[in-house]
Write a structure and sequence with these properties.
Elements: E1 11-18, H1 25-41, E2 46-48, H2 59-64, H3 66-69, E3 70-72, E4 78-79, H4 85-94, E5 97-105, E6 111-118, E7 124-129, H5 135-141, E8 150-153, E9 156-160, H6 169-177, E10 182-187, H7 194-208, E11 211-219, E12 226-227, E13 231-233, E14 239-242, E15 249-255, H8 257-266, H9 269-272
Parallel strand pairs: 1-2, 1-11, 2-5, 3-5, 9-10, 10-11
Antiparallel strand pairs: 1-15, 4-7, 5-6, 6-7, 8-9, 11-12, 11-13, 13-14
């Protein structure tokens, strides 16, 4: 695997944590729009919001009211739902790219846990379907995605993942194999998982010498109470910024191409990796 070329310039990114209302897609889209404005005021050109933020990560509501919680995607993934109008306007008016979690019903009737991408014109599309579904609720509600996705913003190649995807090193490595400079993970980590939350995404950054944006929900009622900790990590896994475990927050930091090149020149895991070594193994008995 060769080391990717550097992006042409820095990219300022926001990782958001906030508390959505279960089933209130209209209200949650308005909250997301407010947070996009807040992030843009701090200089962000890319804003990442939590997993299933538009519906809230609340399986009982997702199960009971699919029409109220889901967005419909036509062939090609485009989403034209008036409930997204405030968020669409925020992306367009602030010239920001937005990645936000949603339940999406596709033209072929699949229901997925998706990352919806809004471009700077405000156009929304289902950009990526979560490939690793966590637990019986997700496995009942959704169909897993079968294809990875890379989002290009201002020359930055950014792999898309959702929450549990980031627990699998090979998922982020596949993004790196597609020449990603960063990895964006809308997530929904519940209370009691802070150790894993803080370890996985820092590790994915260091594993692949790439920037990582981790967004997470916060608040809610047990057993669906979420623990925040939204963060940005540099390509050595060090936090550029991290939110507390409670309360709404917008963490803003800059992905720096000079630093990316410096770290990849020093820590050469991508360039030195020998992928064929995952094959036949010797068996030793002692």
């Amino acid at each position: 695997m060769t080391t990717p070329d550097a992006p042409p310039g820095p990219l300022t990114v926001a990782a958001v944590q906030a508390e959505p209302v279960p089933g209130d897609l209209t209200g949650n889209a308005a909250t997301a729009a407010r947070l996009v404005h807040q992030a843009a005021d701090a200089g962000a050109g890319l804003v990442v919001l939590p997993e299933l933020f538009l519906s809230a990560y609340h399986p009982p509501t997702l199960r009971a009211d699919p029409d109220g919680t889901d967005l419909a995607a036509v062939d090609g993934g485009q989403i034209d739902d008036p409930r997204l109008d405030p968020l669409r306007a925020a992306a367009r008016d602030r010239r920001a790219v937005v990645v936000v979690g949603a339940a999406v019903r596709h033209a072929d009737a699949r229901r997925t846990c998706a990352s919806v991408v809004l471009d700077r014109s405000g156009t929304a599309r289902a950009g990526y379907d979560k490939q690793h579904l966590w637990g019986p609720d997700e496995q009942e509600l959704f169909v897993p995605g079968e294809r990875g996705a890379t989002l290009v913003v201002d020359g930055w190649r950014l792999g898309l993942g959702v929450c549990y995807d980031g627990c699998f090193p090979e998922h982020a490595r596949a993004a790196a194999g597609d020449r990603a400079h960063g990895y964006l993970c809308p997530s929904g980590y519940v209370t009691g998982s802070a150790h894993r939350r803080d370890l996985y995404y820092a590790a994915r950054a260091l594993d692949n010498t790439m920037y990582v944006a981790f967004a997470n929900s916060v608040g809610g009622a047990q057993p669906w109470r979420f623990n925040g900790g939204a963060a940005l990590y540099d390509p050595e896994g060090r936090p550029l910024g991290r939110a507390a475990d409670e309360g709404e927050a917008v963490i803003v930091g800059t992905f720096d191409p000079v630093e990316l090149v410096r770290i990849r020149s020093t820590h050469r895991m991508l360039a030195d990796r020998r992928p064929h070594l995952g094959g036949e193994r010797a068996l030793l008995t002692a």
